[in-house]
Design brief:
The protein has about 220 residues and is an alpha/beta fold. The protein has two domains: about 5-20 and about 85-220, Rossmann fold (3-Layer(aba) Sandwich); about 20-80. The chain is built from ten helices and six strands. A six-stranded parallel β-sheet has the order 3-2-1-4-5-6, with helices on both faces. Helix 3 packs across helix 4 (about 70-80). The termini are close together.
Length: about 220
């Protein structure tokens, strides 16, 4: 890790990092499956929990290969718009502080419409210089190509990949991408993976945080 003063930008994951989609999202996902008459076994639920953090269409295709993905995902997006997911406590305040020092961006496996809706609903869209959704990239995380549209936008502003640090909650999607492209990483533990999960994955414990309020502090220590 470099000193915080060296970083110019912070790339945030969205689901499970900024918005509280882990528990409510799973509940909604299973509710839609039930409303569509899909079978939900214990194996299904366990598999969904293991894969949580990948794009929704991947979950649908994995659990119910014969289900039309568009039908399922359209219902999910309608439900999210009718009942917007909440930001984690103090997230907006922390982002407002960080954007004064860093160029903030989002890299998410959520679709463009739902992502921008939630950002506007919570009045935080203006805090981000760049937003890269699943619709803006040809592949999802952790494929290194998933972040290329974001990196190109940063490069136009003179900010290179080595000037960035990535903040996320998933070992597979977020930490996996960070390792693949050699970008520094801070893990949050209120989403899909726990503190112990990240330790087992080999992440230095100094770069694992258990509350969003710890993020400015840890950045000053890097």
């Amino acid at each position: 890790m470099k000193e915080a003063s060296v970083y110019k930008g912070i790339v945030f994951d969205f689901d499970g990092t900024l918005i509280d989609s882990q528990h409510e999202g799973l509940k909604r996902f299973l509710g839609i499956a039930a409303s569509l008459g899909l079978s939900i076994s214990d194996d299904n639920v366990a598999q969904i929990r293991r894969l949580w953090g990948v794009p929704g269409y991947v979950l649908v295709q994995t659990c119910w290969p014969d289900m039309p993905v568009d039908v399922f995902m359209d219902q999910w997006e309608v439900l999210d718009r009718e009942n917007p997911l909440l930001l984690f406590s103090e997230t907006k305040n922390i982002l407002e502080r960080l954007c004064l020092q860093f160029s903030l961006s989002i890299l998410t496996s959520r679709g463009r419409g739902s992502t921008h809706f939630h950002l506007q609903y919570h009045r935080i869209k203006s805090l981000f210089s760049f937003i890269c959704t699943l619709d803006d990239s040809s592949v999802p995380k952790p494929n290194p190509c998933s972040i290329e549209p974001l990196l190109r936008q940063y490069e136009r502003c003179g900010i290179m990949v080595n000037d960035l640090i990535f903040v996320g909650d998933s070992i597979h999607s977020d930490y996996g991408l960070a390792r693949a492209i050699g970008i520094d990483f801070i893990a949050v533990t209120w989403g899909v993976n726990t503190h112990n999960d990240f330790l087992a994955a080999g992440l230095d414990p100094r770069y694992i945080i258990d509350t969003i309020e710890d993020l400015p502090r840890i950045l000053t220590l890097l």
